[in-house]
């Protein structure tokens, strides 16, 4: 009882719950900060535009002797025509096959610009069913793309890592991948760092956006900043709809432009989707770091015991009891040196000793067997050195793919 701390009294509050609550608080603060900034930036412009519009409306009503209610009714009819896709200037048809294909592409990719929407009841009902399966299939495609891109990056970065080891003399010049890989401790379990993957994806996303913006500036007539803004809004599937490409009636080299537009949007959405998932892993690491900094601040006994005991004991009899309290997505290590072992004054049973050291005994037997057969292998692998952890959905795909890539080399 003397060594118990506040963490044991709050045992139901798991690490996942704490991370979820902390993330919710940070997102709420992030949204509040963003709303404050955008309100300060855009509110004066909105007020000035409203003032100009009211002045124009009254001047038009006075000059042409039209009452304001009649004029407002006419403008409401014009707004309804715009919602149906009718413009003053001639545009290409919205619902011919190319226009409909562009529309379904924005639906299944969850971009949803909003410049084209179904107006009939049958079209709206069909959209519900079509979007349900289309969005699910597209998300699966994005996950598979993420799996392929992570496999490619892991292969390239591991090849660079092997080349660096050869230059430093840690690998023989005639080294080949295969069974001999198990004898090289520096390559066993090696995975690329999450920060390196994030950097490569970020550079690729920026390069892709710059190339696409150059095309939109030349063809659509937008300035370069607006083109970059459109690329981010589109590639991130936010899809405001204030700027939409390929909406004019005709273009020079129209077929080539539409094909390039399709390729840029497809690659951009896949790349930004992968980048978002990698950034979410970094955010998760930051949350874990913040939780470790915040916990047990009010308990001086924890700090004294952790400072006094610098090395974790090999015997952890309480592992069987803690097994139900550790979530699947934890970091696989305890938060402090005092957690996961008994105090010196507590008794343990032989059953607990055997259960807690079952894995350690198996590893020891494997080491002895490999040493006896002449194939020593370093099994103390820090599989979490790269920063990728277990997760759900796309995060699990990245972790599993990296593990498979490392094991197959």
Automatic annotation (TrEMBL):
One of its GO terms (cellular component) is monoatomic ion channel complex. It comes from the Eukaryota. Belongs to the two pore domain potassium channel (TC 1.A.1.8) family. The chain crosses the membrane at residues 20-41, 100-118, 125-146, 194-216, 228-250, 262-283. Pfam families: Ion_trans_2. It is found in: Cell membrane. Residues 92-149, 205-284 form the Potassium channel domain. One of its GO terms (molecular function) is metal ion binding. SUPFAM superfamilies: Voltage-gated potassium channels (SSF81324). InterPro entries: 2pore_dom_K_chnl, 2pore_dom_K_chnl_THIK, K_chnl_dom. Its main location: membrane. PANTHER family: POTASSIUM CHANNEL SUBFAMILY K MEMBER 12, POTASSIUM CHANNEL, SUBFAMILY K. It is a multi-pass membrane protein. It catalyses: K(+)(in) = K(+)(out). Keywords: Cell membrane, Ion channel, Ion transport, Membrane, Metal-binding, Potassium, Potassium channel, Potassium transport, Transmembrane, Transmembrane helix, Transport, Voltage-gated channel. This is KCNKC protein. One of its GO terms (biological process) is stabilization of membrane potential. The gene is Kcnk12.
């Amino acid at each position: 009882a003397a060594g118990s701390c506040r963490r044991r009294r709050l045992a139901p509050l798991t690490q996942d719950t704490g991370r979820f609550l902390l993330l919710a608080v940070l997102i709420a603060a992030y949204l509040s900060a963003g709303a404050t900034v955008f309100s300060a930036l855009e509110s004066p412009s909105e007020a000035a535009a409203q003032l100009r519009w009211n002045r124009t409306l009254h001047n038009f009503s006075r000059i042409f002797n039209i009452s304001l209610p009649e004029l407002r009714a006419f403008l409401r009819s014009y707004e309804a025509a715009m919602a149906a896709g009718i413009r003053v200037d001639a545009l290409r048809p919205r619902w011919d096959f190319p226009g409909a294909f562009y529309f379904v592409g924005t639906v299944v990719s969850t971009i949803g610009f909003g410049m084209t929407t179904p107006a009939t009841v049958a079209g709206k009902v069909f959209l519900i069913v079509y979007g349900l399966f289309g969005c699910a299939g597209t998300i699966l495609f994005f996950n598979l793309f993420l799996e392929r891109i992570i496999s490619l990056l892991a292969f390239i970065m591991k090849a660079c890592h092997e080349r660096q080891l050869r230059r430093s003399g840690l690998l023989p010049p005639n080294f080949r991948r295969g069974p001999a890989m198990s004898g090289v401790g520096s390559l066993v379990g090696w995975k690329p760092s999450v920060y390196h993957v994030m950097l490569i994806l970020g550079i690729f996303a920026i390069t892709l956006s710059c190339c696409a913006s150059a095309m939109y500036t030349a063809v659509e007539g937008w300035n370069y900043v607006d083109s970059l803004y459109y690329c981010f809004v589109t590639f991130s599937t936010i899809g405001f709809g204030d700027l939409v490409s390929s909406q004019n009636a005709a273009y020079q080299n129209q077929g080539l432009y539409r094909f390039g537009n399709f390729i840029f949007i497809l690659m951009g959405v896949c790349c930004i989707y992968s980048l978002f998932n990698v950034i979410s892993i970094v955010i998760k690491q930051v949350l874990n770091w913040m939780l470790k900094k915040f916990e047990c601040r009010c308990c001086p006994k924890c700090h004294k015991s952790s400072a006094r005991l610098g090395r974790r004991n090999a015997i952890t009899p309480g592992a069987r009891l803690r097994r139900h309290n550790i979530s699947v997505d934890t970091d696989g290590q305890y938060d402090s040196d005092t957690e996961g072992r008994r105090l010196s004054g507590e008794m343990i049973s032989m059953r607990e000793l055997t259960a807690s050291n079952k894995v350690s005994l198996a590893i020891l037997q494997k080491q002895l067997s490999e040493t006896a057969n002449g194939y020593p292998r370093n099994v103390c692998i820090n599989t979490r050195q790269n920063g990728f952890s277990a997760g759900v959905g796309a995060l699990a795909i990245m972790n599993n793919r990296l593990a498979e890539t490392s094991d197959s080399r």
